[in-house]
Design goal:
The complex is a heterodimer. Chain A is an all-alpha fold. Helices cover 63% and strands 2% of the residues of chain A. Chain A folds into 2 domains: 449 residues, Cytochrome c oxidase-like, subunit I domain (Cytochrome C Oxidase, Chain A, Up-down Bundle); 181 residues, Orthogonal Bundle (Cytochrome Bc1 Complex, Chain D, domain 2), CATH 1.10.760. In chain A, a hairpin with a 5-residue loop joins strand 2 and strand 3. Chain B has a domain of 29 residues. Chain B is built from 3 helices and no strands. The mean pLDDT of chain B is 73. The chains are: A mainly alpha, B mainly alpha. Chains A and B meet through helix 2, helix 6, helix 7, helix 8 and strand 4 of A and helix 1, helix 2 and helix 3 of B.
Chain lengths: 741, 60
Amino acid sequence: MNARLDSFSYDDDIVRKFLWATMIWGLVGFVVGLIIALQLTSPQLNISPFLTFGRLRPLHTNAVIFAFAGNAWFTGMYYSSQRLLKTRMWSDGLSRFHFWGWQAIIVSAALTLPLGFTQSKEYAELEWPIDIAILVVWVALAVNYFMTLAKRRERHIYVSIWFFIASIITVALLHIFNNLAMPAGALKSYSLYAGVQDAFMQWWYGHNAVAFVLTTPFLGLMYYFLPKAADRPVFSYKLSILHFWSLIFIYIWAGPHHLHYTALPEWASTLGMLFSIMLWMPSWGGMVNGLLTLRGAWHKVTEDPILKFFVVAVTAYGMSTFEGPMLSVKSVNALAHYTDWIIAHVHTGTLGWNGFLTFGMVYWLTPRLFQTGMYSKKLMELHFWLGTFGILLYVVAIYSAGATQGLMWRAFDETGRLQYPDFVETVIRLMPMYWVRVAGGSLWIVGMCVGIYNVFRTWASRPARYEVPVIQAAPLSPVYSDDPHAPAGAGLWARFTNASWHRKWERMPLFFSVMTAVAVIVASLFEIIPTFLIKSNVPTISSIKPYSPLELAGRDIYQREGCFNCHSQMIRPFRYETERFGDYSKPGESVYDHPFLWGSRRIGPDLAREGGKFPDLWHVRHMYNPREVTQKSIMPAYPRLQVNIIDFEGIQKHVDAMAMLGVPYGDAVNRAPQMAREQAQQIAAGIEAAGGPKGLQDKEIVAITAYLQRLGRDLKNATAGRAQPPAASQPVALAAPAGSR
Amino acid sequence: MKLSDIMGAANLSAYAEVAMLLFIAAFIVIVITVFSRGRQRTYDAASRMPLDDEHPQTPR
């Protein structure tokens, strides 16, 4: 035994901080979720301008992913890593910087998203200054974490830590590359990529954000806290290592399955599908491993609410990772995409897996961190059952909503026409299920409140001063002789299979991290580079022109209001889609779309061919109060668009930013405001002539009308073989009946 | 001539499939390694790491 022992203690204060943040932000995120669920049943709950569905939905997703799940990850990571590495964190200062920085970012998100500042890319909505702040905080975390690894007193690195390392590295990569953008103001930017490339990048990010924020870190937590709570080692350590490597090698490839039947090249989405199916194997290996850890301890599960939470969490992990690959099969995807099915899938994963794993962990940590008995075991049980029934109500209702709407979209009657040509009909059919979701979500939130109360009461009976145990352990010796007990083999094959090389990696955290990063980067490059560089993947269409300055301003409003949260702009090549919305979307159509706005969910109809479907006045009335035009519409009303003044001078900056990204703006680079004014005059005059409100020539409604009337027009005009007049100035008739889609 | 022209002419789309095969190969190597003999002792020690907050399981 080494004679020299270090004395040290673990930093639990940082764990307590993150634990509180997890619970409080969790409640906020869930409540916002309940509000947007209610806005879908009762559109009058949209309070324009700040509290509309389009602005709150990103707030909900960001809050639950990065504030609730993010803080939960850090809670468990700071607690487990110090103990697994037998060392205190390298720098208490950096730990605190990480904590306060992260909370500041969450607050800035909670302010900017309702104010309408957004990059319009799902889960990456935050604008560029906040993105930079995230990067700074993330670097602080990474430095602190890797330095802690370097001074550890445990030779082998436990598999949880592998998951944390991979998550830290990959999140950094995803964040940097998806958020590359050209700033066009203090809180405004345009994605560096356009159309297909942007979509590819976004879903490479979106998919892997799910992987490396909601899956891998939580697997790290599972492999630590499940053995802790069950008081026995994980069933198979080998299986957990295999689980890790297969996620690293396979997960990163699966992004394109989010874009089936879109304008993405065939080979890319097939590749995405193949890899998604391969994910079945390790995911179920992980689930089985988690459940079998409880072998011989099942009697404990009936008594211990913590283990109950864990069992449901691990089962939910298995269910959603079974369903995920299934959804990536193209024919299943065709039905499920754009519907609530995806929402149900996500909530099985997040409520069941992330939520329950977090609660189990929080309840396990609370008495240990606050050094007193848990206030009430009964309330833990109550929370468990409220949560479980909440999840069940939520997902059963929303799965059926998804299937219902998906089937209604594709239904033809016996004469071969769409059975439900009116889109709104497929929406109001969902209302009963939306109400059940509200009930399920409410149960979940009541459960959360019970949980917070329980933790609070436990905290209230904490000792006046926390005990800080002093640990003694020997530092690692600088020279390391390989395991003397390992069977000595001769020859290359024996040396390979007894895997001393792999053990060496595990002992060298930095090298190990580099190898993980290499695997992730190489996979990403092979996935992404072809779309960026092979021209034939995005055929150019000569008739596609950049948006006019006014249309661009309208597009900015479309982004600001979060219209893309409910309206897709991507018609898939199915007859039931083209019958309903028009010709299917081509890759070349969105070459000037910085960022792409294809959307991922249709709560309202697709807008890719919206241009010219309705007269300008229809849009003016519809935006003022959608229910005036379509009685059963659940769209928020945007009366302020008729009041807000267009910032004409500001348009120049936006056009310039676009031009810098390579969009051929020509003359508009010099006189964008003037061009916008002219087009606005023209449209406003047309609206007035048609009997609409007067004096709209400088109001935002004109800009967004111009944008909507432009959508899909370039291709339509080209196929009609006509010269292209400015879309919104075409003579219009008021004949289109309300809701005639 | 732009970079994208050169890359387009090089016709690299087969590389994605090659990369996929490489990844599968690497993955198989890892599977063999993990399940090979001579690691059980380390794994047993490692799997006990979460259960002991005070004593390193794999010192040296």
